[in-house]
Amino acid sequence: MTKKKTVNKKPTKSKPRQKSQSLKELNEDLKTEKDKYVRLFAEFENYKRRTSKERVELFKTAGKEVLSSLVPVLEDFKRAIEQDNSNGDNEGVKLIYNKFNETLKSQGLIEVEVNVGDVFDPELHEAVSQIPSTENDQKGKIIDIIQGGYKLGNNILTFPKVVVAQ
């Protein structure tokens, strides 16, 4: 019979265990990770809110270029209606103007209100010319409105063109 070789196992040296972190250190690590998580979550919530707000604004002003290109047509309609036409063609133009105006209003186009006698505000009005005033109380006020202004939401598309007393 053959003898089985017995292998003498040498005792292996066990690796020294790393010192485990103390409970206090683990709690501090947990606290910092929770803080990172809370900050990341808050940042993500702010991002979601900001992008949804931007999306709503984009939908509101999506047709800005189209509406701003239609404003001169609307002004031409106004001038056509103001012309003194004795024939019956004026009634048809009024109907078309009203329908066109209502369609633009439904898309968010708002006319900037300007009246003769209002104080000139360079933030809201565009001065086409200045005329010397005959009375002192007219200085800095609007004398005539050349063309109306329009805005889409809070953004002004075209400024009202006015004549100002100097």
Folded structure, characterized:
The chain is of the alpha+beta class. The chain has 2 domains: 23-60; 64-165, Nucleotide Exchange Factor Grpe, Chain A, domain 2, CATH 2.30.22. 45% of the residues lie in helices and 17% in strands. The chain has 3 helices and 6 strands; from the N terminus they run αααββββββ. A 3-stranded antiparallel beta sheet has the order 1-4-5. A hairpin with a 2-residue loop joins β4 (149-152) and β5. α2 (64-82) packs antiparallel against α3. The termini are far apart. 7% of the residues are buried.
Blueprint of the fold:
Elements: H1 23-60, H2 64-82, H3 89-106, E1 109-112, E2 126-131, E3 142-147, E4 149-152, E5 155-158, E6 161-165
Parallel strand pairs: 2-6
Antiparallel strand pairs: 1-4, 3-6, 4-5
Helix pairs in contact: 2-3
At CATH's second level, what is the architecture of the largest domain?
A: Roll
Percent range for β-strand residues:
15-25%
CATH class of the largest domain: Mainly Beta
CATH superfamily of the largest domain: Head domain of nucleotide exchange factor GrpE
Could you give the count of β-strands?
6
- Largest sheet composition: 3 strands, antiparallel
Q: What is the distance, rounded to the nearest whole angstrom, between the alpha carbons of the first and last residues?
A: 129 Å
Structural class label: alpha+beta
The run of helices and strands is HHHEEEEEE
CATH fold description of the largest domain: Nucleotide Exchange Factor Grpe, Chain A, domain 2
General shape = elongated
> What is the total number of structural domains?
2
Mean residue pLDDT? 83
How many distinct helices? Answer: 3
Radius of gyration: 38 Å
